Amino acid sequence: MNIKPLGDRVVIKKIEAEETTKSGIVLPGTAKEKPQMAEVVAVGPGGIVEGKEVAMQVKVGDKVIFSKYAGTEVKFDEVEYTILKQDDLLAVVE
Amino acid sequence: MNIKPLGDRVVIKKIEAEETTKSGIVLPGTAKEKPQMAEVVAVGPGGIVEGKEVAMQVKVGDKVIFSKYAGTEVKFDEVEYTILKQDDLLAVVE
Amino acid sequence: MNIKPLGDRVVIKKIEAEETTKSGIVLPGTAKEKPQMAEVVAVGPGGIVEGKEVAMQVKVGDKVIFSKYAGTEVKFDEVEYTILKQDDLLAVVE
Amino acid sequence: MNIKPLGDRVVIKKIEAEETTKSGIVLPGTAKEKPQMAEVVAVGPGGIVEGKEVAMQVKVGDKVIFSKYAGTEVKFDEVEYTILKQDDLLAVVE
Amino acid sequence: MNIKPLGDRVVIKKIEAEETTKSGIVLPGTAKEKPQMAEVVAVGPGGIVEGKEVAMQVKVGDKVIFSKYAGTEVKFDEVEYTILKQDDLLAVVE
Amino acid sequence: MNIKPLGDRVVIKKIEAEETTKSGIVLPGTAKEKPQMAEVVAVGPGGIVEGKEVAMQVKVGDKVIFSKYAGTEVKFDEVEYTILKQDDLLAVVE
Amino acid sequence: MNIKPLGDRVVIKKIEAEETTKSGIVLPGTAKEKPQMAEVVAVGPGGIVEGKEVAMQVKVGDKVIFSKYAGTEVKFDEVEYTILKQDDLLAVVE
Lengths: 94, 94, 94, 94, 94, 94, 94
Description:
The structure is a homoheptamer.
Chain A: E1 3-5, E2 9-14, H1 17-22, E3 25-26, E4 35-43, E5 47-49, E6 52-54, E7 63-67, E8 72-76, E9 79-85, E10 89-93
Antiparallel strand pairs in A: 2-4, 2-9, 4-7, 5-6, 7-10, 8-9
C-alpha cells in the first residue's frame, strides 16, 4: 500500500468479525464507543505534532483495538482503510 | 491476557457486587458518576502522552475505584474488560 | 481507612450539620455551588498530574470547605466518603 | 477569621452599599457582570496553581472590585464571605 | 482616579460620540463586535498572568479601540469606567 | 492612517470586487468562510501575545486573503477598515 | 500560481474523480468526514505557529488526502483552490 500518513496518524485495516471470533475476541455491539479490531498497515513518522513530541508506539502488522467513530475512512484498490491518530488506538492485541 | 494498552491506558476487570460486599465496600447506585471497583489486569507503558510525561502509578493486581462511564468495554475469551486512561482511576483500595 | 487516592486526589468525609453549627460555621443552602465542610481522611501523593507538578497542601485531619457537586461518592464500611481533586477544595478551616 | 484559602484563592467580605456610597463609588445594578466592592480578609499562599506560578497581588485589608457571580459564598460566625480565585478580582481601590 | 487594575487589566473611559466625530473616526453601529473608542485611565502591572508573561503595551492617556462587550463597567464619582484585559484592546489611535 | 494595532493584530482595507476581477482572482460567494482580498495598512508589533512569541509575517502593502467574518470593522475618515489577528490572514497574493 | 500561504497553511487543488479512479483510489461519498484527494500547489513557511514550532512535511506536487470540510476555497484564474492548515492533511499518496 502506498498511503503515507502524516504526523502521528496511522492507517489501519479492519479485521472482519470472522477473524475476530477466531482470535477469541468478541467486541460487544452495545459498547458506547464501539471498539473494533484492526491491523496497522502504515504508520506516520511521529515527531513534533501540534508542538508536542510524539513517539510512534505501533508498527505495521500490529493488531489493535480502536474506537469505531475515530478517524476517516478511505477506499484504496477496493479495500477500505481508516486513517486516525495514534491516540485513538486503545491497545495492541498479541 | 494479551491486551497491551497504549500510552497511559490501563485494562481493568470489574469486581462483582458479591466480592465488593465481602471486602466491606458498598458503592451507592445513586452516585452521579457511578464509581465501581475493578482489578487492574494490564498497564500501559506511560511515558510521553499528548506531550506530557506520565508515570504509571498502578500495577497489575491493584484493586481500584473508577468512574463507570469512563473508557471502552471489550470482551475477550468471554470475559469483559474496560480500557481507560489511568487518570480515570480515582483510588487504589488495599 | 485503606483507600489510597491517586495523583492529586483526596478522600474526605463530610462533617454533619450539627458539628458544623458547633464550630460556628453555617453554610447557606442557597449558595450556588453548595459548599460543605469535611475532614480530610486520605491524601494522594501529588507529583506530576496531567503533566503538571502538583504539591499537596492539605493533610489528613484538615477540616476543609469544598464544592458539594465536586468528586465521586463511595461508601466504605457503612461510611460515606467523597474522592475529589485537591483543586476542588476551597479552604482549610482552623 | 480562621479560614485559610488554598492556592490562589482569596476570602473577601462584601462592603455594604452604604459604605460604598460614602467612598464615592456606585456600582450600577445593570452591569452585565455585576461588579461589587469587598474587603480582602484572607489570602491564599499562591505558588504553583494548576502547574503555573501565581504570585498573590492583594493583601488583607485591600478593597477590591470583583465579579458578583464569581466564587463560593460561606457564612462564618454569622458573617458572609466569598471564596474566589485572585483572577476573579478586577482591581484594587485606594 | 484611584482604581488600580490587577494583572493585565486596564481601566478605560469611553469617549463620547461627539469627540469621536471631531477626531474623524466614526464607528459603525452595525459592526458585529461594536468597537468603541476610549481613553486609558489606569494600567495594571502586567507580569505573570495565568502563568504567562504579559507586557503592558498601553499607557495612561492612550486613545484605544476596544470591543464594546468586553470587560466590566463601574461608576466612580459619577463617571463610568470599564475594566478589561489588555488583550480586549484592538488598537491605539494617534 | 494613524491606527496602531496592538500585539499580533493587523489593520486591513478590503479591495473592491472590481479590483479583484482585474487581478484575476474571483472569490466565490458560496464559500463557507467567505474569503476576501484586502490590502494591509498597518501591522502590530507582534512579540509575546498570550504568552507566545509571534513574528509578524505580513507588511504594509501586502495583498492578503482573509476570512470575512474575522475581526472588527471600524470606519476612519470615511474609509472602512478591519482589525484582525494575523492568524486570520490565510495567504499573501503576489 | 502566486498565492503564498501564511504559517503552516498549504494551498491544494482538488483532483477530479476521473483522475482519482485512474490512480485506483475511490473515496466513499458516505464517509462522515468526506476525505478527498488533492495536489499540493503551495506550502507555507511553517516555523512558529500559535507559539509552536511547525515543520512542513509536504511539498509542492504531493498528492494528499484531506478532509473535505477543512479550509477555505478560493478561485484564482478560473481554477479553484483550497487553503488549509497542514494538520488538516491526513496522508500523502504515492
